[in-house]
Amino acid sequence: MELFTKRRIRGLKSNMAKWKFLNNGEVITNSQPSHHIWKPTAFILAEQYIKLSDLALLYSEVNSHYAYNELTEDIFLNHTFDEDDFAMIRTFKEDTLPRKRAATKEDYDIMYYIFVNCKLTFIEAANYRYKCSRDDIEYDMNLIDQWYNE
User: Which residue, among 38, 97, 48, has the nearest Cα to 68 in the 3D structure?
Assistant: First the structure.
């Protein structure tokens, strides 16, 4: 215990140069640049192997199911990673994302208009169907499949 106390006091004394005490009791610190470097997302995604800390940084910036699914797909297709760490981060992020909302009649009306009235090509309709399944809205895909096959 005594050794810990001495280390703590020595540590505080060595850091005294970083603090300035004003006459009114306020404390000003001299901020120094951190030795931790935050990599931009594009730089992380350019690497072949993604470390745990970089995975955590990538998933911390995701706020929607659509962006989450896109990022997960990109990582699976283009990168290598530690599977255990990846599974842990994914389950944590899935729990923290907002729940998918149920589709309303207006949502289905928009989808019906897109699939039936817009004269889409087969590829365009397939792209819209893909977006429906990945969006933040929970659609009944059986109903959309009926329009898709018409």
Answer: 97
Instruction: Report residue 112's pLDDT band, with 50, 70 and 90 as the boundaries.
Output: confident
pTM for this one? 0.52
Report the pLDDT value the prediction gives residue 44, as an integer from 0 to 100.
86
Residue that has been written with the tokens 């995604």 in this structure = 45
Q: Which structure tokens are listed for 11?
A: 């540590």
**What whole-number distance in Å separates Cα of residue 97 and Cα of residue 136?**
10
Q: Are strands 19-21 and 27-29 parallel, antiparallel or unpaired?
A: antiparallel
- 3-state SS, 44-65, equals HHHCCECCHHHHHHHHHCCCCH
Residue 50 tokens read as 């993604």
User: Does the pLDDT at position 113 exceed 70?
Assistant: yes
In angstroms, the CA 114 to CA 148 distance is 10
What whole-number distance in Å separates Cα of residue 54 and Cα of residue 50? 6
CB of 86 closer than 8 Å to CB of 55: yes
